[in-house]
Amino acid sequence: MLIAANPIPILNSYLNTYGDTLIMYIGGVRPTLLTRDPGLVQHILQKNHRNYPKSELSHGIARYLGHGLLTSEGSYWLQQRRLIQPGFHRQRVAGLVELMQAEINECLKPLKRQLAQEGGSTEVEVHRLMTTTAFRIIARSTFSTNLDNAKLERMSALLTAIQAFYVRSIRQPYLRPWLALRNQFRQHDELATELREMVRSYVRQRQQTDDSYDDLLQMLLDVRYEDTGAPMTEEQVVDEALILLVAGHETSANALSWMWYLLAQHPSVVAQMRADMTQVLCDRSAAFADLPNLGYSLQIVQETMRLYPPAWIVDRVAQEDDSYNGIRLPKGTMISAYLLGIHHAPSLWEDAEAFRPERFAPEQMKQQPPYAYIPFGGGPRLCIGNQFALTEMQLVLLEMLRRFDIDWVEQPPIQLQPLITLRPRQEIRLRFRSRS
Ligand code: HEM
């Protein structure tokens, strides 16, 4: 099977016809095993993970984004993961909630102004708003300082351009000679250097100040290797900070955009959420300690990521011959764990296409087989930012529902655009009304 610009409907129809695991060809040249079998996915990500490093699809982007946690491998990855993991523990994330709330407030100010000018009701391009919001939250959580708008926009634009180019060069490998001829690789190397230098300037500014900070950058600067007691080099700090921006930006932005898309079509879910908010918060902003009492907000976020997992595919390659349940996995086999397919499989989910946050009520989830729900991946390379992301998304949900009513606007169904993350192909337009 050949992978086209919009592969998802094709992938789904093949899986429905031929079973949960099949061979496909990316760009018509490279055989890849695509699977929505949760058992096989657990096998490669967790049970036999040592045999399955990431493939060159993931490693290739290191050319532009450097060797941070997401792109590194083997003993270097393990050493970095051990070093950085404590910085993402629940309590550390709790400490970032104030920064997140402050940034959410900043992001909503222009919308509030617009609403005031337009008599309390306006149409909003939701994906654009959520992209800015998610980027500002991760940038602020990393660098604390109030970042200037122009620089933020430039950073975000650089990231988008680099990722789009990378996906194109992978999906359509036959274009590579043409891209090289047009100097595209060099131009994108230059964009990557510009991005890296921006991150480096924040790192240097921080090293030169005596003020104390409690953000992700400070965590990266403060950690020490257990064996030598040494800190990371500047290059390593830049690598890791850059990877946090990359990993934490589009993923959350897309999940949040899809969440509003779904909520605007399901007013009864919003009504249930508001009832819980009234009970727990009255009309104040949520603190970290409130979140366990607002479990439905987590369920909404979880169900959104079931239907629209931002990381829709996770790639690995077999290092040695292996097999799973009669499927041969010879050395060199590329494997794509098709998270989107698992999350929509009728064999795993009743009425799989329906948006029902109730599925994630704690007692319900216990009945799901392992690896039926894995928006953050699994095994040792499980997303390090999962707690951060869940917290951030719940805060955005609660803060926006507190301020606005959100109405559906008639529009054709929004299609999927599966790049590195699962974006909406068209802008999502919704009507926002101020709540008095
Ligand atoms: C909705 C939001 C997010 C989703 C769905 C998501 C999903 C994922 C997935 C599936 C992986 C594993 C990839 C693989 O195994 O090949 C991953 C890894 C990673 N994520 Fe996230 N992520 C999200 C948000 C974040 C945030 C906010 C951060 C940082 C603050 C972050 C940082 C990372 C890092 C550093 C890794 C690499 C971990 C490692 O390999 O050790 N992610 N993410």
TrEMBL record:
Domain of life: Bacteria
Binding-site residues for heme, renumbered to this chain: C383
Cofactor(s) needed for function: heme
PROSITE patterns (alphabetical): CYTOCHROME_P450 (PS00086)
Pfam families the record matches: p450
Keyword terms of this UniProt record: Heme, Iron, Metal-binding, Monooxygenase, Oxidoreductase
Molecular function via GO: heme binding; iron ion binding; monooxygenase activity; oxidoreductase activity, acting on paired donors, with incorporation or reduction of molecular oxygen
Gene3D superfamilies linked to this entry: Cytochrome P450 (1.10.630.10)
InterPro entries: Cyt_P450, Cyt_P450_CS, Cyt_P450_E_grp-I, Cyt_P450_sf, Cytochrome_P450_Monoox
Protein family: Belongs to the cytochrome P450 family.
Protein name: Cytochrome P450
Organism: Hymenobacter crusticola
